[in-house]
Amino acid sequence: MAKPTISQIRECIRSLNYVVSIHAAEELDDDNLTIDDLENIILTGKIIECQRDTRTQEIKCVSSVASRSKNEMPKSSSKSGLSATSSSLPPTSPSQLCASCGQPGVRLRNVTRSFGRGPLLLVIEDIPLWTCPHCGESYFTAQTLHEIERIKALRKSVAVERPIPVAMFQVSCN
Ligand SMILES: [Zn+2]
User: Residue 145 Cα, ligand 1 centroid: separation in angstroms?
Assistant: First the structure.
């Protein structure tokens, strides 16, 4: 697969024509970054380092933005955000070719994901997730991630309270 240039990647971002692997989406959550933060990093940031994935040989770029409007973004956060995303380009096409390996036959399934914990826990059901049977990659479209952000922002009005069992994983010493 041809390596996309930064201007091609930015064009994909502007047209929401890209996907984010489930692994990258989880890293964004872990770093408290939203999909808007990620887009902002790629659209306005500067590439400060390129790394090669030793397993897949993919080139991953580390990007940095000078500052955020609210608070300074830690370098490690911007790093994981962009490196994860650049690996999932180029974007999927309507013909449903895999965005990672380019083979046809990606499947759509709906998944349930949880965000936050304790009193801030939010569960979102029926999130569409594309999965490739050839390379095993799973990813969300840009539109899906923006919808997740919208639901998180409007949780008070769009979420319904439901009593659900929540368990804590117990680590045994022996
Ligand atoms: Zn694939």
Answer: 20
